[in-house]
Amino acid sequence: MKTEVDLVRFDGGNTGSVQRCLNRIGVNFRVVDKNNLPDGSRPLLVPGVGAFGSVMNVLKQDGLDVAIGNAVGKGTPYIGICVGMQILFDESEESPNAAGLGLVSGKVVKFVADKVPQIGWNEIEPQQAGFERGFVYFVNSYFAQPEQKSTVLYSSEYGGNFCAAVQKDNIIGFQFHPEKSGAFGNELLKRTIVNACRN
Amino acid sequence: MPVATRTKLCKRIIPCLDVAGGRTVKGVNFQNLRDVGDPVSLAEEYERQGADEITFLDISATVEQRETLFDVVEKVANVLSIPFTVGGGIRTVEDALKLLAKGADKVTVNSAAVRNPALVSGIAERCGSQCCVLAIDVRQGEVVVNGGRDKTGIDALQWARECVERGAGEILLTSWDRDGSLSGFDLDLVRRFATQLPVPVIASGGARDPQSFVDVFLQAEADAALAASIFHDGTYSISQVKSALQIAGVPVRAC
Fold first, then answer.
1. If both were cysteines, with which of A85, A106, B153, B169 could A80 make a disulfide (CB 3.0 to 4.6 Å apart)?
2. Is A132 on the interface with B (CB under 8 A)?
3. Which residues on chain A are in Cβ contact (under 8 Å) with B12?
4. Residue B127 confidence (pLDDT)
């Protein structure tokens, strides 16, 4: 299968830096949005910045929440970045009245630390075979707590241990920014996309 | 009393490129500019050496020079795979949006924010706090603007606090007394900011050698350190600085 993803674009999604990264790592993509909803034929790449609730609102207004839910339900791979990972869960302390996509059980909670958000490079430890440890770039005040600990793909430490990446069936989510995480992050993203396209 | 944060979060090393008219320049106390090269190839070289982030400060004097910045920002954003910050001459939220659209990950605001503090809130609201870095030039505890020429009578720490409340996500703290002097970071100044502000503080001004970085992280608790001259001159590479930090027990990103 061709290595090509559907890059999900919405207001506040900040797709620019991910697009530049895809160009650098040689991954083809097509941009999907409210006018051109994803049909589930390619893996979905969902970057996100901003508040959990406002991202969910925009996705709803655009009809992307349903399109994404349907595609992922039928087995289309989902690759989420930052808030694109957090919205996989049921709810977030950041926006108590907003429901997430609910594709992975768990909730998103706020860091308890001297300086919040966490900004900078932190080391991530793989919790599953076939992944390597490395340094990646984070900008986040909140992090996900998956109900099933077996879905934690990477963990890291900031004011305690936290889930840095999650993997469940055809879903993978990175709390960090692989597109801004040097050669290690770029290669991790590329490998994830290549694997998703194979399945 | 803040609790110590259990983390492996790394201390960041940030080379700074002063650009004007599409070229990189660096002066001592912002004067006597010397040409040190092409910003795109310098940025790439710094990423190879292990820079954790790169900052561009545009010091263009004319509108024509300024226009070249957007091209440079786009070219740099295309090749870098680490965060990239741009500052200098940002007067409006639209200026910030234009730079972010060209590929900058963050913008820094300085003098224009002193004249119009709503600029900080505006950028934080439109683009998010993670994009909004407040740069403060300090001379004897006081905010100075316009390249250090003009005093403002504003207490620097109070100003930083106000801007954090307005949404600034990081503080780039430059000691005007030390800038380009190669006499080491201003440890007292940095410690005061780094321990009292709830956002990361990037120390700038005075980096002399790898030991300066060890001191600013271990003694002054900076979250990141920015330097220009010692890297541009090739006196020390970023990897040399990081090796010294590792030996001293400072958490840094291995490359």
1. A85
2. no
3. 120-121
4. 85
Q: Which residues contact B175 (CB under 8 A, 6 or more apart)?
A: B138, B139, B185, B186, B189, B190, B204, B205, B206
Q: What single letter denotes the amino acid at residue A34?
A: K
B115: left (phi > 0), else alpha (psi -120 to 50), else beta? Answer: alpha
Mean per-residue pLDDT, A148-166: 97
Give the pair of three-digit tokens for residue A133: 């440890």
CB nearest to B77's CB, from A20, A113, A121: A20
Which pLDDT does position B1 carry in this prediction? 35
3-state secondary structure of A148: coil
Which among B6, B82, B100 has the least Cβ separation from residue A180? B82
pLDDT at B2: 42
CB contact under 8 A, B8 and A122: yes
Q: How confident is the model at residue B6 (pLDDT cuts 50, 70, 90)?
A: low
Nearest to residue B146, comparing CAs of B22, B20, B30, B18?
A: B30
pLDDT tens, residue by residue, B220-232: 999 999 998 888 8
CB contact under 8 A, B105 and A180: yes
Sort out which chain A residues have CB atoms less than 8 A from B223's CB and list them: 115, 119-120
pLDDT score for B36: 59
Could you tell me if A49 and B130 are in contact, meaning their C-beta atoms sit under 8 angstroms apart? Answer: yes
Please write down the HEC assignment for all residues of chain B: CCCCCCECCCCEEEEEEEEECCEEEEEECCEEEEEEECHHHHHHHHHHHCCCCEEEEECCCCHHHHHHHHHHHHHHHHHCCCCEEEECCCCCHHHHHHHHHCCCCEEEECHHHHHCCHHHHHHHHHHCHHHEEEEEEEECCEEEECCCCEEEEEEHHHHHHHHHHHCCCEEEEEECCCCCCCCCCCHHHHHHHHHHCCCCEEEECCCCCHHHHHHHHHCCCCCEEEECHHHHCCCCCHHHHHHHHHHCCCCCCCC
Our CA-based measurement puts residue A14 at a distance from the nearest CA of chain B, in whole angstroms, of 9
Residues A68-81 have pLDDT tens digits of 999 999 999 999 99
pTM of structure: 0.94
Chain A CB contacts of B105 under 8 Å are 17, 180
Residue B191 banded pLDDT, cuts 50, 70, 90: very high
- The active-site residue, picked from B58, B137, B179, B223, is B137
ipTM of this model? 0.92
Structure tokens at A161: 């241990």
